[in-house]
Write a structure and sequence with these properties.
Chain B: Interacts with pre-ribosome complex. The complex is a heterodimer of chains A (about 850) and B (about 190). Chain A has about 850 residues and is mainly α. Chain A has helices at about 1-20, 25-35, 35-65, 65-85, 90-95, 100-135, 140-165, 170-205, 210-220, 225-240, 250-255, 260-290, 295-305, 315-325, 330-345, 355-370, 375-380, 390-415, 425-445, 450-485, 490-495, 500-510, 520-535, 540-545, 550-570, 575-590, 595-610, 615-630, 635-650, 695-700, 705-715, 730-745, 750-760, 770-775, 775-825, and one strand at about 575. Chain B is about 25% helix and about 30% strand. Chain B has helices spanning about 5-20, 25-30, 55-65, 95-100, 110-115, 160-165, 180, and strands at about 45-50, 50-55, 75-80, 85-90, 105, 120, 125-130, 140-145, 150-155, 170-175. The chains are: A mainly alpha (about 850), B alpha+beta (about 190).
C-alpha cells in the first residue's frame, strides 16, 4: 500500500522541484539553451505561468490555520511515533513529504485526524470489550475491530490520495476530510453510546429498560460494523436480562383493573422488553438472510436459543436455527448443530416442549428438501434421550391402581358384611384420603415437575417425528434405487450421487431400535432387506445398484436389522436368514482399502458371534468363506475373520469335521455332495464337504499373530480340552491389529522383538517368521533396486511407444491433408 | 411309470415352490452321482400308481426293466395324487424340502413330541422362526438340533406371531416323521 501511495504522490512532487533548481545551472545547460533557443523559449513561457499560480494558491491555503495545526500535530505525531509502532506506514508518509507542497499536506491532516482519534477509539474498544467480557468474545472481537479500523484508515488514505492527484481545489478536499472526520466521529459516538446503553441496562435493567429501544434503533444503522456491534451487544444484554419465565402480556380487562405501582412498573418493564426483543428478533431474521451478516445473526440466534429456550418467540428462533442446520457454511452449521444438541440434552431448561418442536421442524425440513441435506442435520437426533422408565413406571402405577380397586372392592365387601357399625371409621378414612389428594395436587402445582402423562405425550410425539424422518430417508433411498436403473442407466452422475443421510439414519435406528413400534417393524425389516441386498429387483440390475450403496452401508443395514430384532424380540427368536445370505455375498465384495473394516468386524460380531444358534450348513459355509476371504485381505481384516472362525468352530462341534483331512460328503453334507464356492446361498454351498486347507496356508502368513491364530485353529480338533485364553471379539482383534500395523510402520524393529516373543509362546508357528527376519539389508537393497529398474524400464518403454504413436498419427494426418489438397485442386 | 404331463408338473412344482421358493431350481438341476454312468445325469419326476417319485435318470432307465404291476417304488416318493385329484406331499419328501427350505420353524425340545404325534405347532412351542413368513407359505419344522421333523403350512405371518397368545396355532400340520410309525401301512 505504501508503495502505491508513493507512486501516486510522486508526480505532483516533481514539477515544483524544477524551479528550485534554477540557481544551480551548469555550463552545459547554458550551452544547450544557447544552441536551441527555440526550446528554451517554449519552456520559459509555459513554466512560469503554471508554477507560480500553483505555488501561490497553495500558499494561500496554507497560511491561515493549517500550517499551525500541522506543526502542532507534527510534534504530537513525533511523540506518538515513539510510543506506538503500529501505524508505521502512515508515519513514514508523514515524515517524507514535508518539503512538498499540496499533496503531502492533505495527507497529513487526514492521518492526524485518525491518530487523534486513536485514544478515544481505544477507550470505546475497552468499553465494548468490557461488555463482551460477558459474552466471552473479547479477544477475537478486539482483533477484528482493529483490522476493520486499519482498513478504513487505508481506504480514507486512498480517497485522499486520489483527491490529491486530481488536484482539486483545496476547499473541496477540506470538506471531504471533514466529512470523513464527522463520519468517524459518528461511528465512535455510536460505539460509545452502545457501550453506555449496554452498561446502563446491565447495571439496572428495570429503570433503564427504555434504552433497549435505542439500542435496537442503533442496530438498524447503515454501517455494517455498527450493526454487527449493535447486534452483539444487544445479545449480551438480552442474555442477561431475560427472565426465567415466559412473559404473558396483560389482556385488556387486566389493563383496565386498578393495580399497584409496582405491578404497573413491572408490566411496563415486561412489555417494553418484549417489544424490543421482538424487534430485535425480526431484525435478526432479516439479517440472517443477507450473506454478509449471516454468521453474526446466526450466532446471536443460536446463543439466545441456547440460553433461553423457554422465552417468547422461541418458534422463530428455532425456525431460523433449523433452517441453517444444513447450511453450506461450516461454521454456521456447527453452531446450529451444537445449539440443537444442547437443546436436546438440557431438557430441564424448557420442559421438553422445544425438543418436540425442534424435532418436528427438522422432520419437516428433511421432507421439504427431499432428503438431500448434510448428514449433520440428522446426526443431531443421536443426542436425544428418551426416558424409558416413564413407560414402566406408568405401567406399575396402573397395576397399583388395579390392585387398589380390587382391595377397595374387597374392603367394601367386608364392610357390607360387617354392617354399618364402623361408619365413623369410614368417614374418617375418607377425610384423610381427601386431604392427602389435596396436598398432592398442591405439591404438583407448586413444583415445576411435569406431569408424567404430559412427559409421555411429548416423548411419543418426539419419537414419532424422529422415526418418521428415518423412515422417510429409508423410503427415499429405496425409491431412488428402484427408479435409477429404469430412468437412465447410462448417466454417470446418477450412480455417483450418494445418500448423505443414510448413514446417520442407520446409526439412529440402531440406537433407538428398542423404541420402535412393533407395527413398523415388518416394513422396516423389508426396507432394510432390500437395501442390504443393494437392489430392488434381483438379476442384472444388481451390479448397477451395488454402486449406489457402498458395501459398508449395506453391512450397516444388516447390523441395524439385527440390533432391531435383538432389542425387540426377547420372546420370539427370529432367524434372519436373508441377511445372512446378504452377508455371505457381501464378504466377497469387501475391499480392504475402500470399505470400513470396523463395520465388517462389527457385523461379524453381531451376526455370527452373538447369535446363539446356527444351522450347521450355514455355519460351515461361513467358516469356509471367511477362511478363504482371510487369505486375500489385509492382516487386520483377516484377523477379525479368523477370530470369528474360531468362535464358530468352538460353538459348533459338528463343523469341526471341516478340520479333518478327509472330505466329508455323503449324509453329513446334506443333499449337496460337493462344495460349490460360487453359490450365493450359504445353505446350498455344501461347505461341509470341503476341507479348511486355507488354515494351512494362513499358518505361513507373514504376520506372526495371524499365523499363530491359524495354527491354533487347525489344532483345535485334536486338543479337545484346550482352554482358550483370549476371548476377544472380532472388533477388538481388528482394532488391535490395525494399531499393530501402524506401529509396525513406524518402528519395524519392535516387530522383530514381538516376533521372537510370539515364537517362544506359540509352539506351532514354524520357521516362517525366521525367513522374514533373516533378510539382510543388502539383499533387500539389491532386490528393491532391480525392481525399480524394471519399473523404470517399463515406464520408459511406455513413453517411447506413446511418442511413436504420436509421430505415426501426425504422419497419417499429414498424408490425409495432402490427399485432401490434391483432391481439392482438381475440383477447382 | 411315466413322466408327468403339464398339469401334473405345474401342480407338483407349485406345491414344492411353496416350501423352497427359488431353490426349486436347485432341486430340478441337482446333478446325480448314482450308477456307474460316466456323465452324471439329473434327477427327474416320475408318476407311478398315483405317486410322484423323485429319481435319478440312471435309476429310471434301469427301472424300465421291471414290469409296471411289479414295480413298487423307485427313488424317493415325494407325494401322491388323492382320489379327488389333488397332489399331496408326503413325509418322504421331508429331506428334499429340509435341504432347500426357505421358511423354517425350530421347535423347543419339550414340544417336539407333541408335533410328532400329529398336532399343530403352537406359539408356545416356537424356539425360533425365520423372518417374513407369510400365511399360507410352506414351513419346514426342525428340532433345535436342526433335525427335520416335518412340514406344514404357516397359519400366521412372523409379524403376527409376536402378538399371538401362546396357544395360537403358528403352523398347520401336514406331515411329520412320526407318520413312519403311526401310518406305516399307508406309506
Amino acid at each position: 500500500m505504501g508503495k502505491k501511495k508513493q507512486k501516486i504522490i510522486l508526480p505532483p512532487e516533481l514539477p515544483p522541484e524544477i524551479p528550485d533548481d534554477e540557481v544551480e545551472v551548469s555550463d552545459e545547460d547554458l550551452q544547450f539553451v544557447k544552441e536551441n533557443l527555440g526550446y528554451a523559449s517554449l519552456l520559459s513561457s509555459l513554466d512560469t505561468h503554471s508554477i507560480t499560480k500553483h505555488v501561490t494558491r497553495v500558499a494561500d491555503a496554507k497560511d491561515d490555520a493549517l500550517e499551525e495545526l500541522y506543526e502542532k500535530r507534527l510534534r504530537k505525531n513525533a511523540l506518538k511515533k515513539e510510543k506506538e509502532e503500529t501505524g508505521l506506514q502512515v508515519d513514514r508518509v508523514d515524515a517524507l513529504p514535508i518539503k512538498a507542497l499540496d499533496g503531502t499536506l492533505h495527507y497529513r491532516t487526514a492521518t492526524k485526524a485518525v491518530s487523534e482519534n486513536d485514544p478515544s477509539e481505544e477507550g470505546t474498544g475497552e468499553d465494548i470489550s468490557k461488555e463482551h467480557g460477558i459474552v466471552k468474545l473479547t479477544k477475537a472481537e478486539k482483533r477484528a475491530k482493529l483490522k476493520k479500523m486499519k482498513k478504513e484508515e487505508k481506504k480514507q488514505g486512498k480517497v485522499v490520495a486520489k483527491a490529491e492527484v486530481e488536484e482539486t481545489p483545496q476547499a473541496a478536499v477540506l470538506a471531504e476530510v471533514k466529512e470523513d472526520l464527522t463520519a468517524e466521529e459518528a461511528f465512535e459516538n455510536k460505539k460509545c453510546k452502545l457501550a453506555e446503553l449496554g452498561n446502563a441496562l446491565l447495571t439496572d435493567p428495570e429503570s433503564n429498560i427504555k434504552f433497549l429501544k435505542e439500542m435496537v434503533q442503533i442496530s438498524r444503522d447503515n454501517d455494517p460494523t455498527i450493526v454487527k456491534l449493535g447486534l452483539l451487544s444487544l445479545l449480551a444484554v438480552f442474555k442477561d436480562i431475560i427472565p426465567g419465565y415466559r412473559i404473558r402480556l396483560p389482556t385488556e380487562k387486566e389493563l383496565e383493573m386498578k393495580v399497584s405501582k409496582i405491578v404497573r412498573k413491572m408490566r411496563y418493564y415486561e412489555s417494553t422488553l418484549l417489544s424490543a426483543y421482538k424487534a430485535y428478533l425480526q431484525r435478526l431474521v432479516i439479517l440472517e438472510k443477507k450473506p454478509s451478516f449471516q454468521l453474526v445473526a446466526v450466532r446471536c440466534i443460536c446463543s439466545l436459543l441456547d440460553a433461553h429456550p423457554h422465552f417468547n418467540f422461541r418458534e422463530s428462533l428455532l425456525d431460523a436455527t433449523v433452517r441453517n442446520i444444513c447450511s453450506t457454511n461450516e461454521a454456521i452449521r456447527k453452531i446450529c448443530c451444537s445449539t440443537i444438541k444442547s437443546l436436546f440434552t438440557n431438557e430441564g431448561k424448557h420442559g421438553g416442549e422445544t425438543t418436540v418442536e425442534a424435532v418436528r421442524l427438522i422432520a419437516d425440513h428433511v421432507k421439504a428438501n427431499n432428503c438431500q441435506l448434510h448428514p449433520d442435520s440428522i446426526d443431531v437426533f443421536l443426542s436425544l434421550a428418551f426416558d424409558e422408565d416413564l413407560v414402566k413406571s406408568k405401567k406399575i402405577e396402573e397395576d397399583q391402581k388395579l390392585k387398589n380397586k380390587k382391595g377397595k372392592k374387597r374392603k367394601n365387601m367386608e364392610a357390607s358384611n360387617q354392617l354399618v357399625e364402623n361408619d365413623r371409621k369410614k368417614s374418617r378414612q375418607e377425610m384423610i384420603s381427601k386431604t392427602r389428594d389435596e396436598v398432592e395436587a398442591d405439591y404438583k402445582a407448586a413444583s415445576f415437575a411435569l406431569d408424567v402423562m404430559e412427559k409421555r405425550q411429548m416423548q411419543t410425539e418426539t419419537l414419532s417425528a424422529v422415526f418418521e424422518t428415518y423412515f422417510r430417508i429409508l423410503k427415499h433411498t429405496m425409491q431412488s434405487i428402484g427408479a435409477r436403473p429404469e430412468a437412465n442407466p447410462g448417466l454417470l452422475s446418477a450412480s455417483v450421487e450418494s445418500f448423505p443421510l443414510l448413514a446417520p439414519c442407520l446409526n439412529g435406528l440402531a440406537k433407538f431400535s428398542h423404541l420402535i413400534d412393533l407395527d413398523f417393524m415388518g416394513d422396516l425389516m423389508n426396507h432394510l432387506k432390500v437395501l442390504a441386498s443393494g437392489s430392488s429387483n434381483s438379476g442384472n440390475s444388481s451390479d448397477k445398484c451395488s454402486k449406489c450403496l457402498t458395501v459398508s452401508e449395506r453391512l450397516q443395514c444388516c447390523i441395524v436389522a439385527f440390533k432391531v430384532m435383538r432389542n425387540n424380540l426377547d420372546a420370539l427368536n427370529v432367524d434372519l436368514q436373508d441377511f445372512f445370505v446378504h452377508l455371505y455375498n457381501l464378504v466377497l465384495e469387501y475391499r480392504p482399502g475402500r470399505d470400513q473394516g470396523e463395520v465388517l468386524a462389527e457385523t461379524f460380531k453381531i451376526m455370527l458371534c452373538d447369535d446363539k444358534q446356527h444351522d450347521m450348513q450355514k455355519t460351515a459355509a461361513f467358516i469356509k468363506r471367511l477362511a478363504t476371504f482371510s487369505l486375500s485381505i489385509g492382516s487386520a481384516d483377516s484377523m477379525a475373520a479368523l477370530v470369528t472362525v474360531r468362535h464358530l468352530l468352538q460353538k459348533n462341534v459338528k463343523c469341526r469335521n471341516l478340520l479333518e483331512n478327509d472330505i466329508g460328503g455323503g449324509s453329513v453334507s446334506g443333499t449337496v455332495p460337493k462344495y460349490q464356492p460360487y453359490s450365493t446361498d450359504p445353505n446350498l454351498s455344501g461347505a461341509l464337504a470341503s476341507v479348511l486347507w486355507e488354515l494351512n496356508l494362513l499358518s505361513r502368513h507373514y504376520h506372526p499373530a495371524i499365523s499363530t491364530m491359524a495354527s491354533g485353529i487347525s489344532t483345535m480338533n485334536t486338543a479337545h480340552n484346550q482352554v482358550i485364553l483370549t476371548k476377544s471379539s472380532p472388533q477388538q482383534a481388528f482394532k488391535e491389529m490395525s494399531l499393530d500395523q501402524q506401529l509396525c510402520f513406524t518402528q519395524s524393529g519392535s516387530l522383530k522383538l514381538n516376533n521372537k516373543k510370539r515364537r517362544m509362546n506359540g509352539p506351532a508357528s514354524s520357521s516362517s517368521p525366521t525367513v522374514t527376519t533373516s533378510f539382510d539389508d543388502n539383499e533387500l537393497h539389491r532386490k528393491l533396486n532391480s525392481h525399480f529398474m524394471l519399473l523404470h524400464d517399463i515406464k520408459e518403454n511406455e513413453r517411447l511407444r506413446k511418442e511413436l504413436d504420436w509421430t505415426a498419427l501426425s504422419l497419417q494426418l499429414y498424408e490425409q491433408y495432402k490427399k485432401q489438397k490434391r483432391r481439392s485442386k482438381p475440383s477447382k | 411309470m411315466r413322466p408327468l404331463d403339464e398339469t401334473e408338473t405345474s401342480a407338483v412344482f407349485e406345491k414344492l415352490f411353496k416350501f423352497v421358493g427359488n431353490n426349486l431350481k436347485s432341486i430340478v438341476e441337482n446333478p446325480s452321482h448314482e450308477g456307474p454312468d460316466s456323465n452324471p445325469g439329473r434327477y427327474c419326476f416320475r408318476l407311478h400308481k398315483n405317486r410322484i417319485f423323485y429319481a435319478s435318470e440312471s435309476l429310471v432307465k434301469r427301472a424300465t426293466n421291471v414290469a409296471r404291476p411289479n414295480l413298487v417304488s423307485l427313488g424317493t416318493c415325494i407325494g401322491k395324487y388323492t382320489h379327488g385329484g389333488n397332489f399331496h406331499l408326503t413325509v418322504q419328501a421331508l429331506n428334499l424340502l429340509a435341504a432347500n427350505a426357505k421358511h423354517k420353524v425350530w421347535l423347543k425340545p419339550q414340544s417336539e413330541m407333541s408335533f410328532l404325534y400329529g398336532n399343530h405347532v403352537l406359539k408356545s412351542a416356537l424356539g425360533r422362526i425365520t423372518d417374513n413368513i407369510a400365511p399360507g407359505d410352506g414351513v419346514v419344522v426342525f428340532s433345535m438340533a436342526d433335525v427335520p421333523l416335518g412340514f406344514g403350512v404357516a397359519a400366521k405371518s412372523t409379524q403376527d406371531c409376536r402378538k399371538l397368545d401362546p396357544n395360537g396355532i403358528v403352523v398347520l400340520h401336514q406331515a411329520d416323521v412320526g407318520e413312519y410309525l403311526r401310518m406305516e401301512d399307508e406309506l
